[in-house]
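hey so i finally got around to running the thing on that chain from the lab meeting. sorry it took forever, my laptop kept dying and i had to restart like 3 times. anyway pasting the input first so we r on the same page abt which one it is
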Amino acid sequence: MSTETIIVERDGGVVTVTLNRPERKNAGNGLMWQELSDTFAEVARRREDRVVVVTGAGGAFCSGADIADPRGVSGDPSDPHIVRMQFFGQVMLALHKLPKPTIAKIRGIAAGAGMSLALGCDLTVASDNARFSEIFARRGLSVDGGSSWLLPRLVGLHKAKELAYFADILSAQEAASYGLLNRVVADDELDAFVEDWARRLAEGPPLALAMTKKLLDNSMSVTMAQALEDEARCQTINFYSEDTGEAMRAFAEKREPRFKGR
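ok and heres what got predicted. didnt touch it at all, straight out
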């Protein structure tokens, strides 16, 4: 798939999606959001794609939506504002629903929609030079990109309101202390660290990981009884899969399993 604002690279089941508008600190315009949406849909369909790494070019992750672009976030200036934002929301929902593990690899600024994009990934790994801000209030805007859903779950309601109301810029260390990041590593170690995590996930059991992701994402909206019922259903599917059989044989033979996603 040809793209203009992102770079998509595949290597051994790892799909690296690089936001590529470095002259704008990778601010997202309508074309970028559309290309991300198309890419997430393509990855969801491809069995050979096992894990997605989202990152940015030129030393920044994403400075937010490109509010200077006259075409707006949907790419069509004739769209009503509600239509533009609903389109943007569907991009973030596609990332959230992607049945593959996702990792945000963050250097430099991740602000506004860029912070939402990073937090929308399953795992977040940042360079020690990364900075974060729910910048919306400084622009006279309310939070978007799923931040109203993500922040309270990650940091609690009162801390979420502090981050959204004041729109302060956080260092990577501060963001980690609030629970927004899985890891902070030295900038020169970031690529190797994320590559290791991505490889390990790509070699994992795709069906089981997809179901685990869904179970955890649903955990705050179901009862304990429903969670147990959902776990039982997913585990039954696993027991009838080729991958679980392969894992059992590998354990008995004292070797690493080779998962195929079926």
